[in-house]
Amino acid sequence: DGGITQSPKYLFRKEGQNVTLSCEQNLNHDAMYWYRQDPGQGLRLIYYSQIVNDFQKGDIAEGYSVSREKKESFPLTVTSAQKNPTAFYLCASSILQGSEQYFGPGTRLTVT
Amino acid sequence: QKEVEQDPGPLSVPEGAIVSLNCTYSNSAFQYFMWYRQYSRKGPELLMYTYSSGNKEDGRFTAQVDKSSKYISLFIRDSQPSDSATYLCAMRDSGGSNYKLTFGKGTLLTVNP
């Protein structure tokens, strides 16, 4: 059963701690993306990667970091430098030249 | 002016109604258009994808694109309570290796039984 998995579904952290969100896909897609969704703001692109060991900043990369060591995996680290980390985080993937992006179920991060 | 404008609603309709959801855009380079459905606390699900002006139909859903007016629509026929969700439009241009999507903010739809 192909798809995108994100874990955990809910994550709670104290301010000042780094936290890593997992994203795995078995769709054999080359490209992967991380978005942040806040009420009333729509989806905003954090980082994207079109190939292993390469990634680019999106519109709101400050305070985030990523790695792409395997085609199937694209973890996102929310660092303590991110000023407003509480949000719903969505991972997506697509074929390299495809427009259609397919999303995972999301991780809701709460930082207090 | 934002690149993509989408009426946030909320939109409330009775079961069986025809629903029209709309987005306008300002970037004439946008060539590919998508509609996603997002249930509360879930990831968006791709509903429709089109790249040409005109209509594309899939079951109860019809996507319409008017590139000359920079306007896209999603029509839902015979709406059901299970259609209650937020609907997001998304689009991208055809340039180079940039596969970035630009999203509307979403329209919240409620279909009442």
Account of the protein in words:
The complex is a heterodimer of chains A (112) and B (113). Chain A has 112 residues and is mainly beta. Helices cover 0% and strands 52% of the residues of chain A. The radius of gyration of chain A is 13 Å and the shape is globular. By secondary structure, chain B is mainly β. Chain B is built from no helices and eleven strands. Chain B has strands at 4-6, 11-14, 19-25, 30-38, 45-50, 54-58, 61-66, 71-76, 85-93, 102-103, 107-112. In chain B, strands 2, 4, 5, 9, 10 and 11 form a six-stranded mixed sheet that branches. Chain B has a five-stranded antiparallel sheet with strand order 1-3-8-7-6, with no helix packed on it. In chain B, a hairpin with a 2-residue loop joins strand 6 (54-58) and strand 7. The model of chain B has no long low-confidence stretch (mean pLDDT 93). The A-B interface holds A 4, 6, 31, 40-43, 45, 48, 50, 58, 88, 90, 94, 96-106, 108 and B 8, 32, 34, 36, 41-46, 49, 51, 88, 90, 92, 97, 99-101, 103-106.
How far apart lie the N and C ends of chain A?
A: 36 Å
Number of helices of chain B: 0
What is the chain-wise order of helices and strands of chain B?
A: EEEEEEEEEEE
The best one-word shape of chain A is: globular
Number of strands of chain A: 11
The percent range for strand residues of chain A is over 45%
Let me know the number of strands of chain B: 11
Task: Name the quaternary structure.
Answer: heterodimer
Q: Tell me what portion of residues of chain B adopts beta-strand conformation.
A: over 45%
Low-confidence stretches of chain A: none
Order of helices and strands of chain A: EEEEEEEEEEE
Would you tell me the structural class of the helices and strands of chain A? mainly beta
Topology overview:
The complex is a heterodimer of chains A (112) and B (113).
Chain A: E1 4-7, E2 10-13, E3 19-25, E4 31-38, E5 42-51, E6 54-57, E7 64-66, E8 76-78, E9 87-94, E10 102-103, E11 107-111
Parallel strand pairs in A: 2-11
Antiparallel strand pairs in A: 1-3, 3-8, 4-5, 4-9, 5-6, 7-8, 9-10, 9-11
Chain B: E1 4-6, E2 11-14, E3 19-25, E4 30-38, E5 45-50, E6 54-58, E7 61-66, E8 71-76, E9 85-93, E10 102-103, E11 107-112
